[in-house]
Amino acid sequence: MTKLTATLFCVLLASAHADSLTFRNGAVVTGSWMGVNAKEVSFMVDGAIRTYPRSDVAKVTFGPATAPEKPELGMTIAQVVAILGQPDSIADAGAKQIYSYKDSKVTFTDGKVTAVQ
């Protein structure tokens, strides 16, 4: 019972943080800790729950949630909408979209921010 309580506490504590997984090959993924079982670690990355083999994970780092206040290059559409809300209009030109807001425009190419005006 103590192990279950400790695990639940860690999961609840971690859910309010921006966390990172460091893999044995040196790669790092940033997201939110979702859970662990005997074989896999579950992590929320860009709004999707992803699972990774425990044997591939070298380290889990729990950190404070730090939401950016403005869009940054490389962000996804979902991340920008979470910061700025729904745009006033969207200009769609295939792989390129421009989200227009009252005081700014955000350009996406292939779903990632490439310019902020």
Question: Describe it for me?
Answer:
There is one protein chain. This protein has two domains: 2-61, SH3 type barrels (Roll); 77-116, no CATH class. It contains two helices and nine strands; from the N terminus they run αβββββαββββ. It has helices at residues 2-14, 77-84; strands spanning 19-23, 28-36, 40-45, 48-53, 57-61, 89-93, 96-100, 105-109, 112-116.
The second-level CATH architecture of the largest domain is Roll
Provide the spatial order of strands within the biggest beta sheet: 4-3-2-1-5
Query: Low-confidence spans: pLDDT under 50, at least 5 residues?
Result: 4-16
**What is the average of the pLDDT values?**
82
Which fold name corresponds to the CATH topology of the largest domain? SH3 type barrels
Provide the helix percentage. Answer: 10-25%
Give me the count of strands.
9
* Integer-rounded radius of gyration: 18 Å
- Overall geometric form: elongated
Order of helices and strands: HEEEEEHEEEE
Instruction: Report the CATH C-level class of the largest domain.
Output: Mainly Beta
Number of domains: 2
Number of helices: 2
